[in-house]
Amino acid sequence: MEQPPHNLRRHLSLRQLEVFEAVARLGSLKRASKNLHVTPPTVSIQIRKLSDAVGMPLFEQVGKRIYLTDAGRALYESCRAMFTNLEHFESTIADMQGLTWGRVRLAVVTTAKYFAPRLQGSFCERFPGVEASLEVANREHVLERLQANQDDLYIFGQPPAGMDVEAVPFLRNPLVPLAPPDHPLVGRRRVPLTEVGGYPFLAREPGSGTRLAVERLCDEHGVSLKVRMELGSNEAIKQSVAAGMGLSVLSQHTLVSGGEEVAILDVEGFPIERQWYLVYPAGRKLSIAARTFMDYLLEEGPRIMEMPAPPAPEASPPVGGSAGNASLARSG
Ligand code: PGA
Asked: Counting CB atoms within 10 angstroms of each CB, which of 85, 127, 288, 312 has the fewest?
């Protein structure tokens, strides 16, 4: 291995850093080569040249897996900071040029995947120069992304607690109780919540915003649900409800595709009226593209989704982020 050169800038290239960042983030040469659309040998050569320039190994191999060395970890942190700065610079230039081009990186919680692509699509048609990216993940992962400042905007069903964020409500998010169409509660009016508690229930995974809202309602009414299964996917829950495995509660947005073999029940306390929030770190200066996207959603979101406009914004009501004192009890 060579000695570290005095002036690294002369010995490494941005492309090498880009390749290194992808390998470190994805934890694999093969995945990085796919991601960057280059061959695995190209990736290996770039990493070797970069290690030579740094003068220390950046990865170590244990079995089939590769891990960052201390030097690799330090370089990864520097890379992330450099790339974030470059992205800010890109936004600054885009802002100087007006909204002829730009980028909006959006990260959303699981349930928002039912409407976010439609809103993005409509926005991109209106502003063809703007590139949009979408990351869908569970609430906890989206919170991590928000903390790491990885995206321009976030969509949550409830603003994160204990974080300094701006949260702007832009769309209704009613949660409705679901049953298989032949269930005895279907067609009854104002079913007491306690009766729902008598049937097996299919819950979203701990940490899900939908689950937190159901838990809160049950706590308020002193009702304990008999959780038969926990599922991390709205689609899996709909299928299981249709198959007669139990009752559940999901966002009405999950029923958009129609043709679902589930019935909406009329239960006291429902629909749980919630809202979707656009969230970003407080004090962050949004790029013109992100700001325009936000304004577009506030003005056009309800029309595009054909839902009535949300009620006037209340003070952002942060709620706890954990499923702590859950009233969901597992049934045997
Ligand atoms: P979830 O979030 O998809 O994590 O349940 C949606 C929501 O908070 O309404």
From this structure: 312
